[in-house]
Specification:
heterodimer; A: mainly alpha; 13 helices; 4 strands; B: two-stranded antiparallel ribbon
Chain lengths: 347, 453
């Protein structure tokens, strides 16, 4: 494996982890807003219990991705930095409001509702704009002339492909987060909340699949090069669909421990994650070797080899140092019955 | 405004706003840790309440510090793609390692706050130590990039071509340790004086000797001890920083001191304004020979003046005022801390005069002003370069136009954040008084961190 391929694989790994964590994060914020008036179901409560300790960690990943881009592919960072000025700034503005008001809503109890509404709505827009970066990298809306590069915003926002990605981001965010929260509620023994989130997941699953199909249809017209390369891996796309169906079935199977509860959310979430993993692998592979089509490739944008080797050494060191921390964190917040079943949401 | 000026103002505003939260975010964890350790040692409940209240403050400030830090990190690529392309190739290590520091801080901050009642005391202290280390490391590493901008090494640049990259040599550039030390020490100083400000303000609002008064007095004395130690260390380190300027960026030192003529036995100019036309400093108090001594530890040291540099290499001359403000406030804080501690412990006075109390109240904001002046001095003093004598600011800026509207939008969002964070802080502490915490801490069944939110 060449260094640049190794680098893009690491980057893809980061993007995938962030995509999963961010959908949970922004989705949980949104659900916490939707169910704020239905206190009895405790659905908001469950969402907050997940969200409070995790949002900072999730947020760090987005910085990690940006750093990975400019440290491993500095020339791509130049192009992306230039063309993403407007969408990137929009994300930052929304993210600032969202994070701050999320924190404030936990502190200022009397103003909880308006603050949660602001953070919930701004949070839902972020995945949509984040995923808009993908159609931009397909190159159709980037003008390259010599030293100067620019983004054709009007062209982007009048294309069906952009809206396909946008709606896919929204529906996936809601689908994955409702699924995770269903599992979280199930582990916490919150029957009502579990029922609510399981229902949401069942509704949103097919919608997210439809938007994914919509992406493929518009890709065929807007960026045929990537469409045809994705179709080369048709078998993997079908495998992805297969795991979607498994995930769906899992939500209807009777539970292991308790036969009157419907669904095995843990199994569902694992197979849906595999579904997204396979699909994003096919997409990522088809995208190669371009970072921004057709000018910037992983080899033309690659950093100095000395820098890459030093960086890679710190990746390994960083992983060794951080792993126990992540494990401890997971044990305390995802696995500890005392936390999951505490009578009230701890602040 | 022209394109470059808007881009610089935009990024400067982001940094100026972010460093308020970043500096307190580095400084407060040390205070929290000190209080937590004092509590575990003395079992005096006042200290655990301090730790709790400062942790809350820290948590609220993180709500702004984290997103503005994210903005700063991403805006670097959006506004300065030319600069980040070079940094990506040569100086990516500090950014990358900083990510690990962020993770450590984020993971253990959540553990300390949300799991405090489920983990044993040693784990609480360890978590807090890791939070403090994470916060400190982020500051140190980002300062490393700043140090590299002033004293770049570890690569060669011909036109846009970068060769002979040695990333670790770039990482350990000559001013890394001095600059990072300065930022760390001054952040600890600021964190302590912010606590002093609030404590002094609260002491004046409560009758002398009352329970709440005593609580705040304890916090005040603690913050003066920490603040005194670190303000002194900042000054010692600042002296070294100035010597590094003399060695590596002489035109920056000359501009900071308003020195035009190259000379030995150079005077130190305090105050006054630099006159670019007449090439002299006006209205300054000059201490003969002092600058030469400070720059090289001997009066014979020849300090190069601005006249020996082409005018297009001159930094803006107002940096003299910023430099003076930074040093002036720093010195004031040293005297304030040690003077008060002597008054309290050597002269054994129980009362602080009212005027002194008001100076305490101002000390925190003043420390922040000093931090702002220091950063603006450090960054404008490097102009016209982003990487000293290698890459100009004009070559770093984005080619995308129409920054004006974005600048306005960011200003609006910063204003919203500033207003709402002040509102939330006031709201929270008005609702959760010290007295309430004292009662809660005495009744052990009520968990301290979860009791009031």
């Amino acid at each position: 494996m060449s260094d640049s391929l190794l680098a893009i694989t690491v980057l893809w790994g980061f993007v995938f982890i962030y995509a999963i964590m961010a959908t949970m994060d922004f989705g949980a914020g949104f659900w916490s807003m939707v169910y704020i008036n239905k206190e009895k179901t405790r659905a908001t409560n469950i969402a907050n219990r997940y969200l409070s300790p995790t949002w900072e960690v999730t947020n760090t990943f987005i910085v990690a991705i940006v750093v990975a881009v400019y440290s491993m592919f500095p020339t791509a960072a130049y192009t992306l930095g230039t063309v993403l000025l407007i969408p990137g700034s929009a994300i930052l503005l929304l993210l600032a409001i969202r994070s701050a008001f999320l924190v404030f809503s936990n502190i200022a109890q009397e103003y909880r509702k308006p603050l949660t509404y602001i953070s919930g709505i701004t949070g839902m827009l972020i995945p949509g704009i984040l995923l808009s970066v993908l159609p931009i990298t397909h190159g159709g809306y980037v003008n390259f002339h010599e030293e100067k590069q620019s983004l054709d915003l009007v062209g982007l926002f009048t294309s069906g492909n952009e809206y396909a990605f946008f709606t896919f981001a929204l529906s996936s965010t809601l689908f994955l987060s409702s699924l995770l929260l269903a599992d979280y509620a199930n582990v916490s023994d919150e029957r009502e909340a579990y029922r609510v989130y399981r229902r949401d997941a069942i509704i949103l699953g097919p919608i997210s699949l439809l938007t994914a199909v919509f992406i493929m249809l518009t890709l065929k017209h807007d960026a045929n090069w990537i469409y045809s390369k994705m179709m080369d891996d048709f078998f993997l796309l079908m495998a992805s669909l297969f795991f979607f169906i498994i995930g769906g079935i899992a939500l209807f199977l009777p539970s292991w421990k308790n036969p009157d509860v419907k669904g095995r959310p843990r199994l569902a979430i694992i197979s849906i994650t595999i579904q997204y993993l396979l699909a994003s692998y096919v997409y990522g592979k088809a995208h190669l070797p371009y970072i921004v089509y057709p000018e910037v490739t992983i080899t033309s944008a690659f950093t100095d080899p000395n820098s890459f080797h030093a960086l890679f050494a710190t990746y390994i060191a960083g992983f060794i140092i951080l792993f126990p921390g992540f494990y401890f964190f997971w044990k305390l917040f995802m696995h500890d019955k005392k936390y999951l079943q505490s009578p009230q949401t701890k602040k | 405004m022209d394109h470059l000026v808007i881009a610089r103002s935009m990024f400067g505003t982001t940094m100026g706003f972010h460093i308020i939260f970043a500096t307190i975010g580095v400084g407060l964890p040390l205070m929290m840790l000190t209080a937590e350790i004092l509590y575990q040692k003395t079992k005096d409940l006042d200290y655990v309440i301090m730790a709790k209240r400062w942790t809350k403050t820290f948590g609220i400030l993180l709500g702004v510090g984290i997103p503005t830090g994210t903005i700063a990190g991403l805006q670097l690529s959006l506004l300065w793609p030319g600069f980040m392309e070079v940094i990506g190739k040569v100086m990516a290590l500090p950014f990358q390692i900083e990510i690990y520091a962020f993770f450590i801080e984020a993971l253990f901050m959540s553990i300390y706050v949300y799991a405090s009642e489920r983990i044993p005391p040693w784990a609480r202290i360890s978590s807090l130590i890791l939070v403090a280390i994470g916060a400190l490391a982020s500051a140190v590493l980002i300062t490393n990039v700043h140090a590299f901008e002033g004293t770049p090494q570890g690569f060669r640049m011909n036109g846009r071509e970068i060769t002979d990259v040695d990333p670790w040599k770039a990482f350990f550039n000559p001013t890394f340790f001095v600059s990072a030390g300065h930022v760390a020490m001054s952040a600890y100083t600021t964190g302590a004086f912010i606590v002093a400000s609030v404590s002094a303000f609260k002491m004046m609002k409560h009758p002398f000797g009352s329970r709440v008064f005593q609580f705040h007095q304890k916090a005040l004395v603690l913050s003066l001890i920490v603040g005194g130690i670190f303000s002194l260390l900042t000054a010692v380190n600042g002296h070294e920083s100035a010597q590094k300027l003399y060695e590596y960026q002489p035109e920056k030192l000359a501009a900071a001191e308003g020195l035009f003529e190259t000379q030995s036995h150079a005077p130190l100019a305090i105050g006054g304004f630099t006159d670019k036309e007449k090439r002299e400093i006006k209205g300054a108090i000059e201490i003969p020979w002092a600058l030469s001594f400070l720059a090289g530890n001997s009066f014979d040291t020849v300090v190069t003046g601005l006249n020996d540099f082409p005018e297009e290499y001159w930094p803006p001359l107002y940096v003299h005022t910023l430099f003076n403000a930074m040093v002036g406030i720093g010195s004031l804080l040293i005297f304030l801390a040690f003077g008060t501690l002597a008054w309290r412990f050597l002269l054994k006075k129980k009362h602080f005069p009212k005027l002194l109390m008001w100076i305490f109240v101002c000390s925190g904001p003043l420390a922040l002003v000093s931090i702002e002046c220091g950063w603006i001095f450090a960054c404008t003093g490097r102009q016209p370069w982003t990487i000293y004598r290698t890459l100009s600011t004009a070559d770093s800026v984005t080619t995308s136009e129409n920054l004006g509207l974005l600048f306005v939008l960011f200003l609006i969002v910063y204003a919203i954040l500033a207003i709402s964070v002040s509102f939330v802080l006031i709201y929270y502490f008005r609702k959760n008084t010290v007295l309430k915490d004292l009662t809660a801490a005495k009744e052990k069944e009520v968990p301290l961190f979860g009791s009031n939110s």
